[in-house]
Amino acid sequence: MLHHGWTSIRVAGDADQFYAHIDIQRAIDSGITHGPRMTCAGHYLSTTGGGGDIQLASECQGCFCADGKVVDGPEEVRKAVREEIKYGSEWIKVLVTGAFMSSKDPKIVHFADDELRMMVSEAHRLGVKVMAHAHSAEGIKQALRVGITSVEHG
């Protein structure tokens, strides 16, 4: 990327089940390799049945691993935020609404206000901002109401 003119990038969550892009960021920051300045969200957060819960097949069809974190309720949200920050996330990415792989209308808002308030509160307390994937006007409004910093794909 650096050789093609990209001097800074923000990774808005990644499909890696682990934290490879954050490891790349560390390698660049420590001088092991060259690359653009990076700021990263580890994984997106989704609800059960939400846009990031890609387990659309029944159990008898096999197991698919979600590339984000599926969380329900304020305490699971708090734990996921802490875990993402533990592994180096500088942003928290949340799927406020569905996505193109959603089993339901991608415009439907997935998180309850108390879950999103917990996410924003815990992230901000730990010095991290929150970005929202939001396809609908209602999802964008909800993100703004709870203090999310930026809206992606709006």
Mean pLDDT across every amino acid position: 89
How much strand? 15-25%
Instruction: Please estimate the helix content.
Output: 25-40%
Using only CA atoms, what is the Rg?
16 Å
Number of H/I helices: 4
Unreliable stretches covering 5 or more consecutive residues: none
Distance between the termini: 26 Å
Q: Main sheet, how many strands, which sense, barrel?
A: 6 strands, parallel
General shape: globular
Order of helices and strands: EHEEHEHEHE
**Care to count the β-strands?**
6
Structural class: alpha/beta
Report on this model:
The protein is an alpha/beta fold and 154 residues long. It is built from 4 helices and 6 strands; from the N terminus they run E-H-E-E-H-E-H-E-H-E. The protein has helices spanning 20-29, 74-86, 113-125, 137-146, and strands at 8-12, 37-46, 69-70, 91-95, 129-133, 150-152. Strands 1, 2, 3, 4, 5 and 6 form a 6-stranded parallel β-sheet that branches. Helix 4 (137-146) links the parallel strand 5 (129-133) and strand 6. The radius of gyration is 16 Å and the shape is globular. 36% of the residues are buried.
Summarize the structure.
This protein is of the alpha/beta class and 154 residues long. 30% of the residues lie in helices and 19% in strands.
What's the SSE blueprint?
Blueprint lengths: L7 E5 L7 H10 L7 E10 L22 E2 L3 H13 L4 E5 L17 H13 L3 E5 L3 H10 L3 E3 L2
Parallel strand pairs: 1-2, 2-3, 2-4, 4-5, 5-6
Helix pairs in contact: 2-3
Supply the key terms.
154 residues; six-stranded parallel beta sheet; alpha/beta; globular; 4 helices; 19% strand
